[in-house]
Amino acid sequence: MIRDEVANVGDVTSFVGRRSETTEITRLFDRARSVTLTGPGGVGKTRLALRIAATLDQRFPDGVVIIELAELRDAALLEDVLIEALGLHRRSTESAMNVLVEHLRARKILLVFDNCEHLAAGCAALFAVLLNRCTTLTLLATSRQALSVRGEHVYPVPPLQPTDAHRLFTDRAAAVVPGFTESGDDVAQVCERLDGLPLAIELAAARIKALTPAQLRDRLTMSMLTDHVADTTPRHRTLRDTIEWSFRLCAPSEQNLWALSTVFHGSFDLEAAEYVCGSAAGGPVLDLIEGLLDKSVLVRGDSNGIVRYRMLETLREYGREKLIGSGEESTALRRHRDWFDRLSAQADAEAVSPRQREWYGRLRDEHANIREAIAWSLTVPGEAGVAVRMAARSEEYWVMRGSLGEARDRLRRACAAARAEDVDGAAIAFALRTEAMFAIWQSDLVAARELLTEARALAGTDEILGAQIGHTEGFLELLLMNVDGAATLISDAVATFDRHARLPEPHLLFLDGVIKSYSSGLATARAAVQRNLDVCTGARAEFSLIGALFGQALVEVQFGDVEVALRAATTGLRMAEGFRFERVAMAAYLVEALAWIAHQQGDLTRAATVFGIAATGWQDLGASPDIAVNFIHQHRRDTTRKALGSKRFDELWLRGKDMSIAEAWKFMLEPRDEPGPLTRRENEIAALVAQGKSNRDIAAELVVSVRTVDTHIQHILDKLAAKSRVQIANWMNETRT
Fold first, then answer.
1. Is 381 helix (H, G, I), strand (E, B) or coil?
2. Which of 283, 508, 533, 560 has the smallest number of CB atoms closer than 10 Å to its CB?
3. How far is it, in rounded angstroms, from Cα 87 to Cα 82?
4. Helices (H), 520-645
5. C-alpha closest to that of 61 among 683, 662, 490, 575
6. What is the structure's pLDDT at 106?
């Protein structure tokens, strides 16, 4: 969750009370860099943390980021989850902590970690390093226990005051019974017996649809007399009993769905619920979901035009206990895995289609569920084959998401399990090839070579699999600057797909066009580039089309028409801007292309600035331009530096590097009057300078004052970082050439 979402917290349901707590915690941050809100489940830690984050927003110019940990079970993934939340990427050769420190140490940012209790030791270790090495960083955490980090300020979140508890009950009851304004002692007694716990009050208020406050009070009294858990605090026992009471008020089929739906992680949609829970729920799933929504057991949300349902973690934990006790957990988990196996296969099959953007959004929403489905398959004997297939799907999605470290780790574990279970070698070979592609995107070329060698040994005689491996081998050879070897591999791979009447992947066609520009000439390269553009346009695959436009920009800026390159790069960047988390992967390449184009146009000041903007993109992507776009990047960067001088280049590069996202986007995409650094009049004057004419001669020819010519020439010197008229003349001659 980022700043815009933090600012809107509380829009769905009103935020009641907590004025004094908000003031006290806000003041804590005047002297503290780490604050932990503690308290039992249901006391309102998360809502209060989000309110604090919204209140403190203006203190943190570099942003407020929410990291939700309820879905995470493995503390070893904490750093990767934080990298993902920050929108960063990393090379496998770079430690996750170094990536985080490099990004955070100079930023004034607030990180809010929600639900830390089950990962307390891991969070404490992470916080200790971040606080020590990133001196402008501030942390806010919620946990049922203190994290014991040096410098941590612990704030126990109390139950609501009686007045606020009453207001909360009335507010939530009015949501289910419009016009409810009960102000008598019955509501006060309900809130008192619920000990002011917000979650318990909200659950109780939902019952007003069927009960009067007096009936509710009496039923609560009866419920609270039994089923206490001896090893929990009184407040927590109250919450548990409230949940138990809410469970008892559900119909048996609603209870079944409550328990069964706890196999989902994060959120889920109706289709998934019907497949996973339908046969065991005991009733129409849609009707049961509506019942659980009415009872505040499920929370409704919308994403990508689909309604999704989420269960509060406390309710989920209770429902999971019921599922385990029923003996149905194993069956439900298998159906959960089967559903997401099928879903990921469909997403993979339609990766290059009009549904491309829709599938990327769907996979993002189901990320936690897919992660858990693969994890389950790795723990159950005989299921490694499914795990290795699932882990190798939707390659472009993982690249765009930036979760390559997580994806590679999952592939390694899946391949290891598959070898142990003697899974078909072709499935393992394809997974190794996919991991090699991820390694290349992370600039880990040594590991990619090893993975491809093993994949090739396992591939057998399957020609399509061989072409897929050849595609990745060709990509690797290109980055190693073995153009001839890359050309052979890529050409053979394209020919194999064509021979089998299979459409080559857009990335393979992209490589084919780029390599042909070096090995076969511009006309042949343009034909290959156009084929890629036609394939992506015909399929209406937006993300793939962005990559194809980068390919066109690369070929044209190197060997063809720089204006065509500029149109391709800016069109691709505008398309990338329309994506959300997906934009960063291709943005670095497109911004880099704009730097090359500015260099080609002779606008060296702009080129140096855009190289700086691109540096931020490469850093966030977790890749190095010296590897990803090696020889083009190095040549154009170095010649720009030489022409401007190191000092001036570094100044402009840092200017671009330090731009905010909004500033950089505006700088790159706002229309310019002229393609080069000079206006039309300045180009005219520079041309006359190159002819050896004096300022007075130029003034007479253009019918302007000498003072006007003096001013224009000073602007030209500044824009070209030049010191003399001779340098202006040289620049004009080079530009013409």
1. coil
2. 283
3. 9
4. 522-539, 542-559, 562-577, 583-600, 604-621, 625-628, 630-644
5. 662
6. 83
Q: How many CA atoms lie within 13 A of 450 on its CB side?
A: 5
Chain centroid to Cα 114, Å, comes to: 18
Give dist(CA 459, CA 467) in Å, integer: 10
Calpha distance 673→363 (Å, rounded): 42
> What pLDDT does 578 receive?
66
Torsion of CA 126, 128, 129, 134, to 10 degrees: 110
> For residues 170 and 181, what is the distance between their CA atoms, to the nearest angstrom?
6
3-state secondary structure of 189: helix
pLDDT, mean over the chain: 87
Cα–Cα distance between 407 and 377 in angstroms, integer?
15
Q: Is the dihedral of CA 677, 681, 683, 685 positive or negative?
A: negative
φ, ψ for residue 200, nearest 5 deg: -65, -40
Cβ atoms within 10 Å of 101's Cβ, excluding its own: 16
Closest CA to 153 of 31, 22, 48: 31
DSSP state of 327: T
pLDDT at position 699 is: 84
Length of the chain in terms of residues written: 737
Which residue intervals of 392-479 are DSSP H helices? 395-401, 404-420, 425-441, 445-458, 463-479
Is the confidence at residue 504, as pLDDT, over 50? yes
Q: How confident is the model at residue 3 (pLDDT cuts 50, 70, 90)?
A: very low
Match 């065509």 to its residue by tokens. Answer: 564
Pairing of strands 138-143, 110-114: parallel
| pLDDT tier, 183 (very low <50, low <70, confident <90, very high otherwise) | low
Closest to 145 measured CA to CA, from 153, 154, 136, 137: 154
- Rg (C-alpha) for the chain, rounded Å, is 30
Helix (H) or strand (E) holding 660: none
Q: How confident is the model over 83-112, as pLDDT tens digits?
A: 989 988 776 667 889 989 989 988 999 999
List the single range of 88-97, 200-209, 373-382 with lowest mean pLDDT: 88-97
Contacts of 59 (CB under 8 A, 6+ apart): 29, 108, 110
pLDDT in tens, 555-588: 999 998 988 999 999 999 888 876 654 445 678 8
* Better-scored residue on pLDDT, 495 or 233: 495
CA gap 85, 63 in Å, rounded: 12
What integer pLDDT is reported at residue 594 of this predicted model? 95
Phi-psi label, residue 68: left if phi above 0, alpha if psi -120 to 50, beta otherwise? beta
CA-to-CA separations, 13 to 3, 10, 307, in angstroms, rounded: 19, 5, 18
- How buried is residue 100: exposed, middle or buried, by Cβ count under 10 Å (0-12/13-18/19+)? buried
What is the sign, positive or negative, of the torsion defined by CA atoms of 12, 18, 24, 25? Answer: negative
| CB of 13 closer than 8 Å to CB of 176 | no
Distance of CA 726 to the CA centre of its chain: 50
pTM above 0.70, yes or no: yes
Residue 285 contacts by C-beta under 8 Å, 6 or more apart in sequence?
Answer: 257, 270, 273, 274, 277, 278
Closest CA relative to residue 600, chosen from 649, 642, 562: 562
Return the pLDDT at 226. 36
Both tokens of 323, joined, read 């599922």
Extract the tokens encoding 251. Answer: 């119909």
∠ CA 408-412-414, nearest 5°, is 115
**Spatial separation of the C-alpha atoms in residues 142 and 42, rounded to whole Å:** 12
In this prediction, residue 33 has a pLDDT band, given cuts at 50, 70 and 90, of very high
Owner of token pair 């090839």: 433
DSSP 573-589: HHHHHT-STTHHHHHHH
The answer to whether the CB of 510 falls within 8 A of the CB of 548 is yes
pLDDT at residue 227 is higher than 60: no
